[in-house]
Task: structure prediction
Amino acid sequence: MSSVQHTHTPLVTEQMRAQYRDEGYFILENVLSDTELELLRGGAQFAVDRLDAEMDAQGVDRIGINARGKRYFSAMVYQQRPELRQFLFGDTMAQICRATLGDDAYLFWEQYVLKAGDPDTAFAWHQDSGYVHENHEPYLTCWIALDDVTEENGSVYLLPYSRSGIRSYIKHIPDPQVNDKVCYFGSDPGMPVVVPAGSIAVFSSMVIHRSGPNLTDRMRRVYLAQYSAEVIMSADGSEPWGSFDPFLRDGAVIA
Result:
């Protein structure tokens, strides 16, 4: 039994729960408070500066899927910016995790996904699980818009289960030019997520998705928080993959 009681209107409705189960996603519009939004925005420049410094040290302009001045995937920032824990382990994320994963949850991964205004900022069709390995239970991605998201500035495009016909891990093929992993080569352009800042696209790690380039002159900032119902291990089972900070146990926040 959960020791947590909720008397207010739930953030995630029964219709959203059903859509997550049947289609792999749902959208929460305008759910972050101004305080939460500013908290998350506060780590964005730090995330860019940290990766730029890493590229400087290595004398390169690309590290993995990161490209200087274009797109940044800066992970585990909360370990250096502990104030982010207020949000990662707060009530908003707790409600989403209970509705999708159940009463037990771990923070699995966290990162800023930032696109500068540049046509070379698209990101290829993939499943988030494609960047892990085959042997794990599907986990949860919360794609949090820190700016108003439009198709022009690089919205994410989802392929719901009914459109892809796929709900399980599929093989990804590396693109040697940009280091993306690609799993879909069909003609469906996907469903664009066009939402105001403070909204969250919630989807399973098995949902195929991509994002378009940022064709504006302003940065498009997204914060990604990912949770799992289990400690996801490395492919050989020797160690945890990513983070494994306990969040929920029997429905109660233990972080």
Notes: The chain is about 20% helix and 25% strand. Residues 1-6 have pLDDT under 50 and may be disordered. Residues 44-58 form the longest helix (15 residues).
